[in-house]
Design a protein that fits this description.
There is one protein chain. It contains twelve helices and 21 strands. With about 425 residues, it is an alpha/beta fold. The strands form three sheets. Strands 4, 14, 15, 16, 17, 18, 19, 20 and 21 form a nine-stranded mixed β-sheet that branches. Strands 5-6-7-8-9-11-12-13 form an eight-stranded parallel beta barrel, surrounded by six helices. It has a three-stranded antiparallel β-sheet with strand order 1-2-3. It folds into two domains: about 160 residues, Lyase, Ornithine Decarboxylase, Chain A, domain 1 (Beta Barrel), CATH 2.40.37.10; about 250 residues, Alanine racemase (TIM Barrel, Alpha-Beta Barrel). The protein binds ligand LLP.
């Protein structure tokens, strides 16, 4: 639950705002973001990684207001598309603090990134190196580039979000020599300034070991590049992927421990080889916005399937949070609009979409007196829920409100049916 959440008379309060007031003022479903929680996590990163760069991974959740918070707190930004870049530029975010990612950036996206003067472009294929070289020459630019390296680390997470084994679409393999070949190709293009290497091993990982192995392998590649080309690359971007707690008993990663461990490893490899210690960047997404967000729903029906469980249907579902359906994710749900002394009943929290896989929480215990009109909150939905939302069954995407100091304000408007019909001929 968000850092500022408390219970008053049985009702949940976040950022000093009672969730019943949120539901009344903004409707449900509603994404609620605890501004103080998110900003404090931005600051925690800035402190733990002092002397390094922290680039928030916008894919977790991006909107203009988040970009303003990043600017206030002095963080950078990782964008993965022209659209994400547009959000950042629309509020005047300094382009030099932006890193551009993607395994298939279009000519238009690369051109825009070059024209804007983004700080770094992380290249992901030989095709892209050639494409970027051509565009840079045309625009008379010399972008700073990094090579995304597939380090071969086995990440203990869902297959769809593990990215460091060779048999997936991202990066250039360390083991096959593709990463070294990419370095050669970039160094042969004077219009590209190779400044470093990048690795992202996967997401929702709570064990620091994998990150450390990846950091050691990247640092070793820096040494190899020095030996082969007599070039010293000044930067390493170690990606993101740090896990948060979704249900009771889940571990979360200790950021301070992570920062110290990564620094120590990279320093040792480089100092032993007589190389200067490179500047590090990390790209956390989920750990910054995940826990500060909750989704508020209203219960519509409570159906007991005898002998099995109770199905509690709420007014949203897989269109506002697809993670359970997509990754088998676990979430915590609770009755938040009142106190209840009733027995806990084995429940499944489901949405209103036309398929049985439309499950938000597979197994949870909700009070037996739960009834239509009650409010349910699902915790830790700040990351990868709104950003992965769809309009399945023509459900409008819910609004996002930020809460702080007893005040709620809309930072992303909810869609209307008119929004959904616009553009249809
Ligand atoms: N950097 C790069 C290059 C990435 O690809 C990602 C995530 C991040 C940083 C941030 O990772 P984080 O710290 O948020 O784990 N939709 C999935 C997660 C996909 C992550 C994709 N890349 C989910 O809902 O679990």
């Amino acid at each position: 639950w968000p850092r500022t959440s408390t219970r008053t008379d049985g009702a949940l309060t976040v950022g000093g705002v009672d969730v019943r007031d949120l539901a009344r003022d903004h409707g449900t479903p509603l994404y609620v973001l605890d501004e103080d929680d998110v900003r404090s996590r931005m600051r925690d990163y800035a402190t733990a990684f002092a002397g390094s760069d922290v680039h928030y991974a916008g894919k977790a959740f991006l909107c203009k207001e988040i970009v303003r918070w990043l600017q206030d707190e002095g963080l950078g930004l990782d964008v993965a598309s022209g659209g994400e870049l547009a959000v950042a530029l629309s509020v005047g975010f300094p382009p030099e603090r932006i890193t551009m990612h993607g395994n298939n950036k279009s000519v238009a996206e690369l051109s825009r990134a070059l024209a804007a003067g983004v700080g770094h472009i992380v290249v992901d294929s030989y095709d892209e190196i050639a494409r970027l070289g051509y565009l840079a020459e045309q625009q008379g630019k010399r972008p700073k580039v990094m090579v995304r390296v597939t380090t071969g680390v086995e990440a203990h997470t869902h297959e769809f979000i593990a990215t460091a084994h060779d048999d997936q679409k991202f990066g250039l393999s360390l083991s096959t020599g593709a990463a070294a070949e990419a370095v050669r190709r970039i160094l042969a293009l004077p219009q590209l300034e190779l400044v470093g290497l990048h690795s992202h091993i996967g997401s929702q990982i709570v064990d620091t070991a994998g990150f450390e192995v990846a950091a050691r392998r990247l640092a070793a590649l820096l040494v190899q590049i020095k030996d082969e080309h007599d070039v010293v690359l000044p930067e390493l971007d170690l990606g993101g992927g740090y896990g948060i707690a979704y249900v009771e008993g889940d571990e979360a990663l200790d950021i301070k421990e992570l920062a110290d461990g990564l620094r120590e490893i990279v320093t040792k490899v480089c100092v032993d080889a007589g190389l200067p210690v490179p500047r590090l960047t990390v790209e956390p997404g989920r750990t910054i916005v995940g826990t500060g967000g909750i989704t508020l729903y209203e219960v519509g029906t409570v159906k007991d399937v005898e002998g099995l469980r109770t199905y509690v249907s709420i007014d949203g579902g897989m269109s506002d949070n697809v993670r359970t359906a997509l990754y088998g994710a676990d979430y915590t749900a609770a009755l938040v609009s009142r106190e209840s002394q009733a027995e806990p009943m084995l429940s499944r929290l489901v949405g209103k979409h036309c398929e049985s896989g439309d499950i938000l929480v597979r197994d949870c215990h909700l009070p037996a007196d739960l009834a239509p009109g009650d409010l349910i909150a699902v915790a830790s939905t700040g990351a990868y829920c709104r950003s992965l939302a769809s309009n399945y069954n023509y459900l409008p995407k819910p609004a996002v409100v930020a809460v702080s100091g007893g005040v709620s304000r809309v930072i992303v408007q909810g869609e209307t049916e008119d929004d959904l019909l616009r553009g249809q001929l």
